[in-house]
């Protein structure tokens, strides 16, 4: 199977550059030659100090120097195998005539970093950009996969502008408990509700803990990790088929080595992110994301990534793509399968082959070939996992963008993963200003709440969270859970995990913490949502809203020093991708090469 997926797999080692596009660079053109080649005092220092590590001129002279930006750490379970896989990447680089240098970067383990990795996505992007800019390197292999690492690595590499290839961590194997398949995140929420309802014992819960994550790799539902690595592939930044390979599969080892070989060819070809990440490539990525039943987080990350690449990507691009049906039958949009099944069914090339009419097949990729050439011959091996366009999992598109007086700059819902009767609903709001109060209140048995209520959490956006945490799958009140209620309409300016599900309206912009209309809602107000009409409205008169606005006072800044202080001054809103204003491509003059003297 992998022979079809990795389109350059079978070529003899060392011939990659000859088999793609014409070689244009000479050794003297290499960026690293500025550090190592001159006969001057500084170059003496560079050469003597690299020789201090045991290298000889034959190791680097005339060879592309390749940075391997590795987001491995001892506390990132999704990247645990990167400690070993980096050696496979190095093997490939050496085989193709390059000189590998491993450069560790911020690891951003989704599950452990608090308050949220989203607070630090831009920090990793800056880390990558400056690592590449400041060191004597000609190209980069980017090793990531756990949620924010993928967009951060690609954002940083895009701004740095050097030839780069992304190596996805790969999904972990299916979870297992008592012979039942368990999916990351999705089954945590599901069984937690059953435990709250008294249907799961403490012993069962411990056994679920031990069985839900049983191998290296990132979450194996269609969460943010699987979404963003698929987007990286659809945009052309990975080898063909790379994003679908489970982390423990031997094909993953071979993919890592192949990426190492390929980046050397990309340096000689000067195949930069700017040549690959065209607007057409972003259009492909957004439509593939829709067909995958993507995480809502894709919207924020793709907007940020697209703007780094100089394209004015926005919510309208996602709304326009919402006509693409969901054809990946992977949870939580799908009802049964996980990423391991998706790989066995043919992986992303097979999915893209099913939707060729929605794609610009002429888009260039890291293979040096077009997307159309990469996926030629891709086949579906299980049509229940990878559906056809006329037999979709969900016909109307994975995501919908809503607007109205409660969200003038937009908000997002994932209709493919929620109870369909809630897609048109109005009801009284139950409003909370902070998560701890909401959590404690929703556990009260005497709470005055019905399934028609709409639970609202505010002050959980980019500024308010801070960092826009994944709180958006607000808990169902315990009293209703015991009655069998499993979905309700919920609204917040937070994000939610891509593994989550339910009628959760997210990313309300502008956020409440900076005075968005969500700040004016009160418990008992009626909110009306109509997904088909893409509307969300607070049914309160303009005069009353004006009076509430006049009485509203801005809360104090979340941070008075450090990184958070900088974050609060420069973070953009959700509909703008949550990048820092000063990192977007249209901010100021381009940064040049570092001076060496
Ligand atoms: Fe790393 Fe889910 S915790 S991808």
Features of this protein?
binds FE2/S2 (inorganic) cluster; alpha/beta; 6-stranded mixed beta sheet; 4-stranded parallel beta sheet; 11% strand; 597 residues
Task: Give a brief outline of the structure.
The chain is an alpha/beta fold. 35% of the residues lie in helices and 11% in strands.
Secondary structure blueprint with pairings:
Blueprint (H helix, E strand, L loop, with lengths): L1 H4 L10 H4 L13 H4 L4 H11 L5 H4 L4 E6 L11 H14 L3 E6 L16 H14 L4 E6 L4 H12 L3 E5 L6 E3 L2 E3 L3 H11 L5 H10 L12 H11 L15 H20 L3 H4 L2 H14 L4 H12 L6 H7 L17 H6 L2 H8 L16 H5 L24 E5 L2 E7 L10 E9 L2 H8 L11 E4 L20 H5 L7 E3 L11 E2 L20 E5 L4 E4 L3 H10 L10 H9 L27
Parallel strand pairs: 1-2, 1-3, 3-4, 9-10, 10-11, 11-12
Antiparallel strand pairs: 5-6, 7-8, 9-13, 13-14
Helix pairs in contact: 6-12, 7-8, 8-15, 11-14, 11-15
The site of FE2/S2 (inorganic) cluster has 10 residues, from loops.
Written account of the structure:
The protein has helices at 2-5, 16-19, 33-36, 41-51, 57-60, 82-95, 121-134, 149-160, 186-196, 202-211, 224-234, 250-269, 273-276, 279-292, 297-308, 315-321, 339-344, 347-354, 371-375, 435-442, 478-482, 542-551, 562-570, and strands at 65-70, 99-104, 139-144, 164-168, 175-177, 180-182, 400-404, 407-413, 424-432, 454-457, 490-492, 504-505, 526-530, 535-538. It has 597 residues and is an alpha/beta fold. The strands form four sheets. Strands 12-11-10-9-13-14 form a six-stranded mixed sheet. The longest helix has 20 residues, at 250-269. The protein is globular. It binds FE2/S2 (inorganic) cluster.
């Amino acid at each position: 199977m992998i022979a079809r997926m990795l389109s350059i797999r079978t070529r003899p080692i060392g011939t990659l550059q000859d088999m793609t596009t014409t070689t244009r660079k000479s050794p003297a053109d290499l960026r690293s030659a500025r550090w190592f080649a001159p006969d001057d005092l500084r170059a003496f220092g560079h050469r003597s100090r690299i020789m201090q590590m045991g290298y000889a001129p034959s190791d680097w002279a005339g060879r592309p120097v390749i940075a391997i930006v590795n987001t491995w750490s001892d506390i990132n379970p999704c990247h645990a195998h990167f400690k070993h896989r980096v050696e496979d990447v190095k093997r490939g680089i050496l085989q193709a005539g390059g000189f590998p240098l491993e450069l560790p970067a911020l690891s951003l383990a989704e599950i452990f970093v608090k308050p949220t990795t989203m607070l630090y996505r831009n920090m990793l992007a800056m880390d990558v950009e400056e690592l590449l800019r400041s060191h004597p390197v000609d190209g980069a292999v980017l090793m990531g996969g756990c949620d924010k690492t993928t967009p951060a690595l690609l954002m940083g590499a895009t701004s740095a502008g050097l030839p780069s290839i992304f190596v996805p961590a790969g999904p972990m194997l299916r979870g297992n408990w008592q012979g039942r398949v368990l999916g990351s995140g999705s089954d945590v929420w599901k069984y937690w509700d059953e435990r709250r309802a008294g249907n799961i014992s403490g012993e069962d819960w411990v056994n679920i803990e031990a069985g839900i994550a049983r191998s290296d790799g990132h979450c194996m539902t269609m969460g943010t990790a699987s979404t963003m690595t698929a987007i990286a592939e659809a945009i052309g930044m990975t080898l063909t088929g790379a994003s679908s390979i489970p982390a423990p599969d031997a094909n993953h080892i071979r993919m890592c080595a192949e990426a190492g070989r390929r980046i050397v060819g990309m340096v000689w070809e000067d195949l930069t992110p700017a040549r690959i990440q065209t607007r057409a490539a972003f259009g492909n990525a957004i439509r593939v994301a829709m067909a995958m039943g993507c995480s809502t987080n894709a919207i924020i990350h793709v907007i940020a990534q697209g703007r780094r690449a100089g394209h004015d990507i926005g919510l309208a691009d996602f709304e326009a793509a919402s006509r693409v049906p969901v054809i990946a039958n992977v949870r939580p949009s799908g009802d049964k399968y996980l990423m391991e099944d998706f790989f066995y069914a043919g992986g992303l090339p097979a999915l893209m082959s099913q939707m060729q009419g929605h794609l610009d097949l002429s888009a260039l990729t890291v293979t040096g070939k077009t997307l159309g050439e990469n996926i030629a011959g891709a086949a579906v091996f299980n049509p229940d996992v990878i559906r056809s366009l006329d037999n979709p999992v969900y016909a109307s598109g994975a995501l919908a963008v809503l607007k109205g007086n409660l969200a003038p700059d937009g908000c997002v819902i994932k209709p493919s993963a929620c109870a369909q009767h809630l897609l048109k609903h109005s009801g009284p709001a139950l409003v909370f200003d902070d998560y701890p109060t909401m959590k404690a209140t929703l556990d009260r048995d005497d709470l005055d709440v019905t399934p028609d209520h709409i639970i609202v959490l505010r002050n959980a956006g980019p500024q308010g969270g801070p960092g826009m945490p994944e709180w958006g799958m607000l808990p169902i009140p315990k009293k209703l859970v015991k009655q069998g209620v499993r979905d309700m309409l919920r609204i917040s300016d937070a994000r939610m995990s891509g593994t989550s599900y339910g009628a959760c309206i997210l990313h309300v912009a502008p956020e409440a913490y900076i005075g968005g209309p969500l700040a004016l809602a009160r418990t008992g107000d009626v909110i009306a949502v109509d997904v088909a009409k893409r509307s969300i409205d607070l049914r309160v008169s303009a005069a009353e809203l004006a009076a509430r606005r006049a009485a509203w006072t801005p809360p104090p800044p979340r941070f008075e020093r450090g990184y958070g202080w900088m974050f609060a001054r420069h973070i953009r809103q959700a509909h703008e991708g949550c990048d820092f204003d000063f990192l977007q491509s249209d901010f100021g003059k381009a940064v040049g090469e570092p001076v060496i003297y």
